[in-house]
Amino acid sequence: MTVRLIIVALAWLWASAAAEPLKVDxxxxxxxxxxxxxHDPAKSWPAVFFYHGMGGHPTTKxxxxxxxAKDWIVVGMAYTQPGAFKYSPENLAKEIAVMHQVRDxxxxxxxxxxxRVYVSGFSMGGWVTSMFFQADRSLAGxxxxxxxxxxxxxxxxxxxxxxxxxxxxxxxxxxxxxxSLKAKLYYGRLGATVRMETWxxxxxxxxxxxxxxLKEWFALRKGGTPDAAAMEAEYAKIGKLAPRQxxxxxxxxxxxxxxxxxxxxxxxxxKTRIGELEVISEVAGESKAYKRHRQLLADExxxxxxxxxxxxxxxxxxxxxxxxxxxxxxLIVTDLKRLTTLVENFEAQLAEKQAQQPKxxxxxxxxxxxxxxxxxxxx
Length: 379
Fold this sequence. Notes:
The chain is an alpha/beta fold. The chain has helices spanning about 1-15, 60-65, 90-110, 125-135, 175-190, 210-220, 230-240, 245-255, 265-275, 280-300, 305-320, 325-355, and strands at about 20, 30-35, 45-50, 75, 110-120, 140-145, 165-170, 195-200. The chain has an 8-stranded mixed β-sheet, with helices on both faces. Helix 10 runs antiparallel to helix 11 and helix 11 packs antiparallel against helix 12 (about 325-355).
């Protein structure tokens, strides 16, 4: 019996991780193709194209662990050029064209549904995903991981189709965290339905245990429904925490894709419980610091000049001694350090630029052809 269970488990792992290289014209490396364990080329399948980070290689492993073994075609993409991706309209168009080439090939041979193609990436791949999401209206949605929004691509297109799904995942201590917040606002204004998951305590890395929100997001994309029993169990587990920890956990829980599905009662239930917790003294101070901190983060995202960034920096500095001794003060200090480094870099770049500017030539005084004669009485 034990041997049989081991064989079944190994078979499941093989099915969930099975991938094959696929050579593509225009790419220096083969892409990695992972078909679902229940694949039938005669049927239609959603697909996700994943772009790796700087120094990585085409891989399907991370995304396959989030989609599960079934129902999804996963493609680990390569870039047309090695090294860092340098944005230009031409470079971006080249990457999109190759992705479309792979998409069309798999539509003919593997049952890929061109109307259900999603793009995702981590770190550099996340930034590229963000650009794809702006530039390619054939995409059904995107998952930007460890990155956010910085560049507005050209040419600018109109609004996204209403409720186009976007998932954002980022470590709370990742330097890209503010750019993920920017992406939430930017793409929300374009019409996307945005779900953002913050990985507490992590920097620029993907959670080793995976992303609960991303797993839910993928499940919903293939027509799944919220797992009511699992959600009830998680809510009950959160309710056993100390008040301040419960409050923080509920702030994250309310962002989950399942919680936000139409017809769910969770949002109102969570809102009510958060309100009850915020009148407790040990939570009230933390809540006040949290709300002021969120405003400063919004000011930082809106800042476009060095003086504006310095003003936010001073706001963080003033908030530290007022924030108490909870988790929020640690996050404020993290953001203060990040912004201080940013300000110092900007100041250094400005000083260097000013030092490189040529010094102005002295303006010659007007030539005096007729001098005023000296007073002969003065010796």
